Amino acid sequence: MRARDLIFIVFSNLRRMKLRLVLTALGVVIGTSAIVLMVSLGIGLQENVTQSLGELGAATHIQVMAGGEPGIGGPERLDDRAIGDISDLDHVQAVLPQVMVQAQDITYKRQSTFASVTGVPMDDLPTFGYALAEGRWPRDDDEIVLGASVPEMFAGGDPFSGGPAGPRLDLIGKRVAVTVMKMPDMEASGKEVMVAEGPESQMEAAETKRRLTVVGVLDKLDMQTDSTAFVTLKAALDLNGVRSSRPVYDTAVVKVDSPDAVAGVEKTLTSRGYLTFSAVSVRKSLQAVFMVIQGVLGALGGIAMIVAALGITNTMTMSIYERTREIGIMKAVGASNRQIKRVFLGEAAVIGVLGGLGGLALSVSGAALANLFVQSLVASQSMSGGAMPQNTTFFVIPASLGLFAIAFAAGVGLLSGLLPAVRASNLDPLIALRHE
Amino acid sequence: MSSTVEVTGLTKSYTMGGEPLLVLRGIDLAMRPGEVVCVMGPSGSGKSTLLNIVGGLDRPTSGAVFVDGVSLDSMDDEQLAVYRRERVGFVFQSFNLIPTMTAQDNVELPLVFAGIDKDTRRHRAAAALDKVGLSQRLDHKPTELSGGEQQRVAIARAIVNSPAIVLADEPTGNLDTATGHEILLLMREMNAEGRTLLITTHDRAVAESVAHRIVHLLDGSVTEIEQGGNL
Questions:
Q1: Contact check, Cβ <8 Å, A329/B98
Q2: Which residues in chain A have their CB less than 8 angstroms from residue B82's CB?
Q3: I need a labelling partner for B149 at 20 to 30 A (CA). Which of A66, A393, B74, B228 fits?
Q4: CB pairs under 8 A between A and B
């Protein structure tokens, strides 16, 4: 029997059972798409999430915070001595201490923005990948440099929308006002409230305003940086009303010499009681989350595929039962057992392939939808502080995965058709011919 | 296009509800090339079983069938399929056409399994259908054909592979006398081309009109062999 004739016989047989074919293939569609989505999620993670975390410029960066939990015995203060200790660690190239200003807003004339204000040692910024787009670095404590998106934010632009840049204010050389809400020391006032009625004034936030001159605007870096304005450490401490000679920093960014060294340094820092945060650790926790999702999808896909396989076996068994006499006729006119087997295996494989194609189509469109959904979710998360680039795709379906899916579905079809096909080929022709 | 068929000491038994049932009790029969032999006997005499064993659709319990000196018993299932495909043509009482296929496709079927290309198949199936007088009915499905026409399609299918042996099991059993006569004429034509024919029937008139020899079978044994009317 020629291959062309086999294919022709297979398709004309399948054409006779359209509805059953569709229903049976539907099971394969579901199983295939679940499996494809699972694998594509894995690929998407590897390719894109890793890459976009790298885009944060953070592959060699570790963010360090003082260990907030007393009693562990770690350093609770991130001060100059602590910074010095961290700088002395192996693989550490530089440490950038940061002071978050409790800024209410930044105002220019009658326009204001909620951009955050951070104090940093200006000289070290270039080492950590910051670059100027225009102007110069602040030299004085009453100068300020703006993140790339801040001039836009003054004009009401939203740096998180990912849309085209809105109107920008040219602020170089202009004076802006930073308003700081100095909340009363929570611990102190809390105690007093518990003991007795404290003076009203202590419960109210004190508002201080300070005028600073814009001297530069940064290049785009990451979403967090772009929406932040930077002042000197001293200016930031002043704004926060800290007069101490031994200032404590909120966080520090540690730069290590290679991405491979991140995990080791991070481990050392954690063992010393610091809280750390790095692209590597974020990736790890993300991977754990996605592993769960992949596992659920994989189990779902596996179960769906098993059910689909049983469906194919059932359909083929029924169809062979109905065509028993036809099989007898084919044998009488000279069809060999092998040829009969091939016909039915072919039918089962085609059901698998059709299901695989359908499943691939479903998963491609499903992946596109899921990517849109996840992107909008990420965008809304970013508004509340998280930094994640806009066009992250979590589901990636390369051509090889598509081919694999179809081959896999065909394999499942073949395997589920095996038993019925062997039974058909071993039918006694005389009994088959007598079948009504 | 002729073959000798030699049957020696053929027995066949089935187990029916635990009881062994002897269908053939030692048949000996030698057919000359181009001979027409009719097997006559009542239902259950074993004539269909004999035909099926000679056609390689069934295997004997003991004894042997030699076709041109080669024993069917020595063939495995694949070789037996090739034997059915290339040396034998079957005609059944109930026609056994595939209802979803046209006359043309039904006749082509043996050629499909023989791996013959489509153009040759079309040509040879059309020629076979023309020979049985159905050249106007190529694209009709079995349900659109009369009983006589269906049996003629079956005959075309039996001869499309140019087999040396044609086995017909009650070929006129489902047909009226006039239509049955047409079928018998086709049988004679097949024989005139040199084919060896083994036909079962319970109708004496059928046997008389086509057979060179008539073998009478009763309860699995040959009771009488007589000369037929086809001389």
A1: yes
A2: 334, 336
A3: B228
A4: 67
Tokens 């101490």 locate to A244
Three-state DSSP at A40 gives helix
Q: Is residue B169 within 8 Å of residue B202, measured between CB atoms?
A: no
Query: Does A69 score more than 60 pLDDT?
Result: no
Inter-chain CB proximity B81 and A330 less than 8 Å = no
Nearest CA-CA distance, residue A436 and chain B, Å? 11
Tokens of A222: 């990451």
- Average pLDDT of the residues in B208-215: 93
First-to-last alpha carbon distance for chain A, in angstroms, is 27
Q: What ipTM was predicted for this assembly?
A: 0.94
Structural domain spans, chain A: 3-56+284-434, 61-257
Set of chain A residues whose Cβ sits within 8 Å of the Cβ of B107: none
Does the reported pTM lie above 0.80? no
Going by C-alpha positions, the residue among A416, A363, A340, A425 that lies closest to residue A24 is A416
Q: Where are the domains of chain B?
A: 5-87+163-227
Q: Do B113 and A430 touch (CB under 8 A)?
A: no
Whole-number Å distance between alpha carbons of B197 and A106: 108
Whether pLDDT at A187 is above 60:
no
Is pLDDT at A189 greater than 50 in this prediction?
no
CATH superfamily of B5-87+163-227: P-loop containing nucleotide triphosphate hydrolases (3.40.50.300)
Among the ranges given (A76-90, A421-435, B12-26), the one the predictor scored with the smallest mean pLDDT:
A76-90
Q: Which chain A residue's Cα is nearest to B154?
A: A333
Name the B residues in 190-229 with CB < 8 Å from any A CB. Answer: none
